[in-house]
Known about the structure:
This protein is α+β, with helices and mostly antiparallel strands and 325 residues long. It has helices at residues 144-151, 157-160, 261-284, 305-323, and strands at 5-11, 20-24, 27-33, 39-43, 57-59, 62-64, 71-72, 78-80, 101-104, 107-112, 132-140, 172-181, 184-192, 213-218, 222-228, 231-241, 244-253.
Amino acid sequence: MIYNQWYLILESKELKKKPLRVKRLNQQLAMWRDEKGHVCCCADQCCHRGASLACGKLKKGQLACPFHGFVFDKSGKVQHIPANGMNKSVPETMKVQAYSTFERYGLIWLWWGDEEKKTKEPFFFRELADYSWSSLQDHWKVHYSRAIENQLDVVHLPFVHRTTIGRGGKTLVNGPVVIREDELLTFYVNNVLDDGKTIPLKPDEIENYQQLFRLQFHYPNIWQNFISDKIRAFAAFVPVDEENTIIYIRYYQRMVNIPLLKELFNYLGKISSLIILRQDKSVVETQIPIKTVNKMDERLIMGDKPIIEYRKHRQFLKEGATENK
């Protein structure tokens, strides 16, 4: 994983009144809401005897271990040890790793890095706040880098999605044009029919590329597809561990706002997204290796430019975070 980043890890609706046990970023986490509804997160392993804290109960917004009743606050520090009595102070060493969180747009992020380097809030495609949406999630048995690269792949559509969004057999790929602004990648796509004569245009040969169909990815793990001005697809590629990823998909739209009809439209959009996602999954889970790095034993082509840029900058971010630790 890239260090010193905000990772989107959950939808808000998943974290209710009871503590939640999840695995994210190779870590077992205990998550809960305090008395004000704020999201709290710490390592799901009691510092006393190693029990799962998420299996405990909440006491005034703090988490009590189910084994011996140790009470942990949102900073991961033990505030009370029942066996020692109310008047006994708690040693400073009695604590577990805690993580900063951020919640907005019905989504929850976790800061994976050094607290002193934490930015105020994570990046989000804020224009989506004006859209209504429906969501789903799917578990893939791949490293999150593989799942991300699939959504940066502009070459696979007429093959993997020949019955859905790849209909028409437009196999020839012009460019694509890839623009990176800090940690935001925007890539412009132009797939056309191969007439046996046309040679694909290189990225710098494409005029008015801004008018083409486009997609965006923001490090470390969110993506959006500009289906139209009023319809967007959003995805978060959530790392579980080195071999598993949960993909959160949201279908955003502002075409239909009539109650009930809007919900039906959103639902149909969600189902369509799932069908397309499962077409990808059937192929991506067969790729070897399940994790990607900057330099691999592959023979990439011009159409893979978004993937090449993704890998290169991901490596840059990983090395920068390591050097500054």
